[in-house]
Amino acid sequence: MKGAISRRTMLSRTGIIFGGMAGSMAGRWASAQEAIRGANDKVNLGVIGCGRRGAELLNLTLGVDNTAIPIVCDVDSKRAGQAADQMAQMGYKKPVIVKDYLRILDNKDIDAVIIATPDHWHAIQHLRACLAGKDVYVETPISHNIAEGNMMRFATRKYRRVVQVGLQQRSDTRLGKSIKEGWPKKIGSIGQTRSWTFAKVKPIPRQPDAPSPGQLDYDLWLGPAPQRPYNPGRVNGNSCYWWDYGGGTIGKWNPHLMDTVNRIMKINTPKSVVAVGGNHGLKDFRETPDTMEAVLEYDSPFGPFVHVYSLRLGNGHAGWGPPIAAHNGQIEPDHSMHYGVQIHGDQATLFVDRNGSALFPADFQQPETISKLTEEASRLEYTLTLDHLKNFINCVRTRSEPKAPIEAGAYALLPCQLANISYRLERKIYYESRTQKCYLDPEHKELASAADSLFIRRYRKPYGIPAV
Length: 468
Description:
CATH topology of the largest domain: Dihydrodipicolinate Reductase, domain 2
Number of strands: 16
CATH superfamily of the largest domain: Dihydrodipicolinate Reductase, domain 2
Structural class: alpha/beta
Helix content: 25-40%
Strand content: 15-25%
Largest sheet: 10 strands, mixed
Distance between the termini: 14 Å
CATH architecture of the largest domain: 2-Layer Sandwich
Order of helices and strands: HEHEHEHEHEHEHHEHHEEEEEEEHHHEEH
Low-confidence stretches: 15-33, 323-336, 366-379
CATH class of the largest domain: Alpha Beta
């Protein structure tokens, strides 16, 4: 692909451009040149990636008024065909099927794209969509590495695109209302926050390399990733568990949780991180850890605090925290919470997940009082996602700022990426947000040079990052 940016240039640009970028450019939508559309103007979307999540987003988008999906893309012809057939069965015009997402970007009738491909493709497809003048809904994690996320922020603002990140909890009006009401004031002095992902999952079985299925263009699936033989254990839903393609469970799921912490604590970047773990629980085929503890230090408007992320995929129980019964509907009701966020203050502990929240006094002891503290009944995840898509499409029409802008996706993912770097380097690192560099000491005197190689990756030709 033409216009690929060099590795050295990319590192240089991201290190200089983004040191103080924060969210200061987020309000520049008024200068966009696109005409504001009416509420009844149709928005044409192209779907890039028709796997499990892509199919879910496609189906939900079809229910949004005055939208159409005239074209879908997947490197697996079977998946793309299934998506197209499903639209026809639902009474919609059968979309055009393409294998190369660039054909969608070249289509002048397409206003925006939904990116639901494997994680290692997100940044490149987003950047090329911005260059092509398309608005973007991109699933989280937004990028494979930190440098890509910075380039995505830059391109979004330079080309004045509407970009919504799939942090659908931002469309939960209850959570937004509670944050505005000032939760930290009710919690007291906050010394620690937590997020966690606990589950009992099936191990990925070790499998030999094999010929790729006939319906899959494996070279195009690999794209920017290194050339490797096809292995069924490394593709589709398992791809994020390999460093070539993703950041493991912490990169896949913790951004949703960290975004909530960021909003409540009014923070963007950690100042240090140390992470330990390994493939201890499942001992299976995956490369990324199934067990991890990451400890991050932050400064916030409420004072310094420590955030702890816990990952465990061999056992789904949480043996600490408020003794609240799980209300997420994904495990037995007598089991403890398998994911969530806790904000621990000297006055109370706040528990949050997508289905509600609860505030527990610091001296809370009686489980029978829990029902009085929980909020209204659960909202199903698909409802939040539908609201999130509606917000995106409305912003495409009005050129307004979406609820989950690109900066939110980058800041939610950054601590996860730094934790993975610490884990892979087997040492604590200190992050300096102004220069966006890692150091070996809190005074930022000795660079952690080995971390630089993990801020970016090498790109297989011709699938490099485009010059933006």
